[in-house]
Amino acid sequence: MGANLALNLADSGNRVTVYNRTTSVTDEFMEGEAGEKDMAAVSTLEDMVKTLFKPRVVLLMVSAGAPVDHVIAALASLLEAGDIVVDGGNSLYTDTARRCHELGERGIHFVGAGVSGGEEGARHGPSIMPGGDPAAWPVIERMFKGIAAKAPDGTPCCEWIGEGGAGHYVKMVHNGIEYGDMQVIAEAYDLMRRGRGMSPADIADVFARWDKGRLRSYLVEITAEILTATERGEPLVDKILDAAGQKGTGKWTVIASMESAEPTSLVAEAVYARIVSSDPVRRSRSADVHGESVGSIHVDVDDIESALYASKIISYAQGFRLMQSASIENGWDLDLGTIASIWRAGCIIRAEFLEDITAAYATTPNLVDLTEAPFFVDALRFALPGWRRVVAAAVSAGIPAPAYASALTYFDGMRSRRLPASLIQAQRDYFGAHTFERVDQARGEFFHHDWG
C-alpha cells in the first residue's frame, strides 16, 4: 500500500521522496513505474528529511505498534516544529492519541489517518480518515483529498474526523464492520452450498444478481468473481483451507464496544467465527466425536438475501452507535453522516448501502439509532419473516449462522419492553447485596431486599 500511495501522490502533482529501511526494496520500486515520475529515492531517513520542503510532511506506512514508535523516535530528532508526521497504518487509536501528545510537545504535528481500499485503492483512490492535531489539516487537506476516491457525486472520500485518536478509531470501527460484512456473506455462501447443495458457480450467479440490487458492494462483487475461479476444472474455493486470519482491528472494535457499553455483537461473532475456523484439526476431532449433523435447509435464496441484508443493517447500526458513544466520551464531535459519506467509495466496505445511510443522517443529523430511520424501519420490517426462517432453518440443519442469529437476537432484545434482567439484578442483590432499581421509583435510586 505504501508504494501505491507514493505513486498516487506523484500522479496528483506532489513531489515524493521514498525511503525503505531495505535499500533493495527502494531500488526495485524506482526501477518500475516510479522511475518515470517526479519522485526521489533515498537510503537514509536523514537524506529523506533533507529533500523535503518545509513544513515537511512524512507519511509512515509501517506495521502498527512498536515499529511505528521506532520510526517516530528516529524521525523526531530530525524534524522541526511545524513539520507533520502522518501514520497511515492501522494503529490503535489510543497509541495515536499518545503520539499526538508526545510529538505535540516538540511542536511537531501528528496525524493518525485510517486508509482503506487495499493495494488497488491506495493506487487509484482510497477512503481516508485523518484525525489528530488539527493544525496539520490545512497543510495536508489538498494533498489527501487529491488522492482520495471520489463518491458518485464527485465528493472526495476524505474529510477531517477529529482530534487525537479519532481518525484511527473510525478506521477501527470501519474494519470491525468489514469483519461483519465478510461474515454475513460467508454465511449466505455456506447456507447455499451446504444447506441447499448449490455449486460455487450457481452461488456466484446469485451474488452477481445481488450485486445489481440493494446489496451492491465491492465485497459482494468480488465474492461472485471468487466463486467462478477454478483450478484444473475444480472450484478454487474448495482448495482453500477454511482457517481465516485476522490482524486485530475487529478484536479492538469489540473491546472498545465493551468499554463504551455499546454492543457490537455481530462484529464479535465475526471475530469468534474466525477464531473457531482457525483450528481445523480441533474441529475435525470434534466432528469425529460428536458427528457432523448437517442437513438440508428449506428456505429460498430470497430469504437468505433478507437475512444478509437485515443483519448488515444491524451491524452498521451497532457500529455507528459505538462511534457516537466514543465521540461523546472523547469530545470528538464526530459527524456520522460525513463518515458514512466518505465510505461510499474507495474503501473495502464501499456499497450502495452507504448511500442510504448517508441520506438517513442528512435527513436526521441527530439520529440516535440507524434502525430508527424510516428507510431502515421499513427495510427491517419487510426482511424480518425471511430472516427468522433462515435462522430457524440453519439451527435445525446444524449449519452455524452466528452473525444472522446474533443480529436477530440483538434486534429482538432492543425492541423488548421487558427483559429478564430483573431476575439477574435480584440474583446479584441476593448473593452480593449489589442493590437494584425499581420500576415504581425514579432511575438512580437503589434498593436492597433482605432475601433471607
Describe what you observe in this structure:
- Helix 11 runs antiparallel to helix 12, helix 12 packs antiparallel against helix 18 and helix 15 runs antiparallel to helix 16.
- The chain has a five-stranded mixed beta sheet with strand order 3-4-5-6-7, with helices on both faces.
- A hairpin with a 2-residue loop joins strand 8 and strand 9.
- It is an alpha/beta fold.
Average pLDDT metric: 95
**Care to count the β-strands?**
9
Distance between the termini: 65 Å
Structural class: alpha/beta
> Which residue ranges are poorly predicted, with pLDDT under 50 across at least 5 consecutive positions?
none
Compute the number of helices.
Answer: 19
- The percent range for strand residues is 5-15%
> What characteristic shape results from the CA principal axes?
globular
Rounded radius of gyration (Å)? 25 Å
Q: How are the strands ordered across the major sheet? A: 3-4-5-6-7
The description of the largest β-sheet is:
5 strands, mixed
Query: What is the N-to-C succession of helices and strands?
Result: HEHEHEHEHEHEHEHHHEEHHHHHHHHH
The helix content, as a percent range, equals 55-70%
Which keywords apply here?
single chain; five-stranded mixed β-sheet; two-stranded parallel sheet; 9 strands
What is the fold's blueprint, element by element?
Layout: H1 2-11, E1 16-18, H2 23-31, E2 39-41, H3 45-51, E3 57-60, H4 66-76, E4 84-87, H5 93-104, E5 109-116, H6 118-124, E6 127-132, H7 137-147, E7 162-163, H8 166-195, H9 200-210, H10 218-226, E8 230-231, E9 234-235, H11 249-259, H12 265-277, H13 280-290, H14 301-330, H15 336-342, H16 353-363, H17 374-397, H18 402-414, H19 421-432
Parallel strand pairs: 1-2, 3-4, 4-5, 6-7
Antiparallel strand pairs: 5-6, 8-9
Helix pairs in contact: 1-6, 1-7, 5-8, 8-11, 8-12, 8-14, 9-10, 11-12, 12-18, 14-17, 14-18, 15-16
